[in-house]
Structure formats: structure tokens, C-alpha cells
Design goal:
Shape: globular
CATH superfamily: Alpha/Beta hydrolase fold, catalytic domain
Number of strands: 9
Low-confidence stretches: 5-24
Order of helices and strands: HEHEHEHEHEEHHEHEHEHH
CATH class: Alpha Beta
CATH architecture: 3-Layer(aba) Sandwich
Mean pLDDT: 91
Number of domains: 1
Strand content: 15-25%
Distance between the termini: 36 Å
Radius of gyration: 20 Å
Amino acid sequence: MNRRLLFTAALAFATTTIAFAAEAAAVKNIVIVHGALADGSGWRKATEILEKRGFNVTIVQEPLTSLDEDVAATKRVLDLQDGPILLVGHSYGGMVITEAGNDPNVAGLVYVAAFQPDKDESVLSLASSKPTGSMDIKETKDGKYLYLDPAAFAADFAADLPKAEADFMARSQVFVSKQAFAAKINQPAWRTKRSWSIVATDDRSINPELERDMAKRAGSEVTEIKASHAVFVSQPEKVADAIEKAAKQAGK
């Protein structure tokens, strides 16, 4: 009788453990936040790869008008998801996910050639700590928005893309408010949640050494990809691989 009870208890425990493991591994929602000077359309290839692998991918088209408004736009998309979420941010999008990632449904954060700020840090303070060189950033006539000189866009942002594709990105870039770049983080989500970082080793928009330093500080698992700042466009398969790996690990 005791053996039977022991066997029943062991079976129940094993069944519960297997069910829990299956549930924990089920991080299938991926929400991507694009960076400044670009929009979410560049994530199409990576999205299609991830969807073929069974993920539900949503792109946030934040307005780039202020950090608060970009975080609010991200939260509206997070609210539409059913279940745990892996939140991904490129470039300035790293600022957004660092704040929006405090949402209780966010299981982990992935920084793709992105800023990974701590409390009271901004894009401006981080970028000036390890400059990249000659980013030809200009102001609009009203002095409120910033953009990258189209003539320099390919070299500074997308050096490993075909010329026609880089030129189109330059002509379709989304201007970002100066206010967004000056805004400081209040509560960095990576302090309480797991994080991963993709370092673009040929990045000329964010210093790769800065990307490494921020990832080390946060205890993020790092994947290095030889690519420009537009790594999500030029290396969609490798970026998708890193995101998939993070999604699986975030569920454990």
C-alpha cells in the first residue's frame, strides 16, 4: 500500500513538473520596439522567420515624440498580448523597453544594438560616454527634432546593406524628438528581469564597446554579430536565432 501511494505521489509530482516545464517554456509572444531614424518595417524579414518558428510577433510603431509617449505606445501593444512576452528593442528602442519592460507580463528583454540604460541615464548621456565618431545628426528648423543627414545614412547606420535599400531607409527615416533623447530612465526593468544583448560589432551609431559595457553591467547574455547598426535588416536570421534562444530561456 505504501509503495502504491509512493508511486502515485511520484507520478503526480512528475506530471505536475512536466506541465510546469511546458507552461514555463511557452513564451511565444514577441513585441519589437524599433529605434530612432527608422520604423518597424525593417523588421519584416526577422518577423517572418520568427513566425515560421511558431512565435506571435508584433511591432510597435511608436511616435518618437517623447520617451513617455513611446513607452505608452508600447504598453498599449503589450496589453493586447495573451501570455508572457519577450520585449525586444533596437537602438533608442532599448530606452523604451527598459521602462516599458516593468509590465508584469514581460518575461525578458532583448537589446539589439541598443541603449541599455540605468536609472537617470539618457541617450545623450550614454552616447557621449563612448562616442562613435562622425554621426552627422542634424536638427529640424524648429529645433525640436533630429535626423541623420541622408548623405551619411548608409555609412553611419546601414553600411552592410545594398545601396538602394540603405538609400530608401535614409529617405524614409523617422525623425526623433530631442526630448526623447534627453529623457532619463526612472526604473530599469533589467534590474529585475532577465536580459539578452546583441552587439553589432561594426556599429557606427552606438559604440560597440558601449553596447558591451551596458550588457555586462546588466548581466545580459551577449551575442555578437558582425554587422552595422541595421543588424536586424542585414542579418535577420542571426537576430531571429538570438531572439528565439532568449524566448526559450526566458520561459525557464
